[in-house]
Specification:
mainly alpha; 59% helix; 0% strand; globular
Length: 274
Amino acid sequence: MKAPISKPVNDTQRAFNELCEKGGGVKGGPARGKVLALLKESGQSLNKMATSEMTSHLAAFPAANPWHVCFAVGLSWGHLAQLDLAFTEAVCNVLSDWNTADLNTAKSFHLERGPTPIEQSLTGAHMLFGKVTLPKTLPDTLDKLGRAQERWLSPILNPKERPPYIGAWNATAMFMTALFGQPALAISQKSPPPMLPPGGPIFAGLKLLHNTGILSKSPAGSELDDASFEPGAIYENNGLFAELCAQLADWSLIDVHSGVYMLGTRHPHSGNWV
């Protein structure tokens, strides 16, 4: 099979191209076991960094609402803002007590998309936190975390109630960052709930795995990072994560998610992440 990724940006993608060229799998595609091992190695390597980042941000603000910390880190991981303790602090302050000074501080950490998406995301989040009552501490079981996610998603699922600027990423990323804040809990997850977030790199990675015979079906949704909220697509694609997870021992759903992310990303710095 011809290498499917033109201009790979990280070692995961280069290794995947090599596996595709060697063949040995379904319809001349890459060998399934070797692809799964690659995803596991890449995902777990990225997750060491992610776990360190998330636990350090939670530790830095012990008096803050932990969900606010999780939302802030989610914005940074979604490449809307620089990952910085000062950004997380400003987000926690503005979500707990809306004010212009902290909002402007948060906006100053914007990346290439500019300050507006940060303000829009925080506006929607502030409205949503006002509507939804979440546990005061991060849930310590997957079922409890799943129930908290159901509460958070309830007004988002209703178009008439959905706060502005809460799309697919902002609807789900906070629960992934909450998992990274509790590594032992994250390791135990083999299937939803909670749902892990979608996004352009995830869609692209899943599509590559389907096209090369590793996944049974193509992902749902769209390659657009700022896609509108499509709950059906999120559920379907989390089912694909679980399909991959079941085929190999000693990894978890966020390992799968991060491995697929590394396969699908076009971020030029991703080669430095693992």
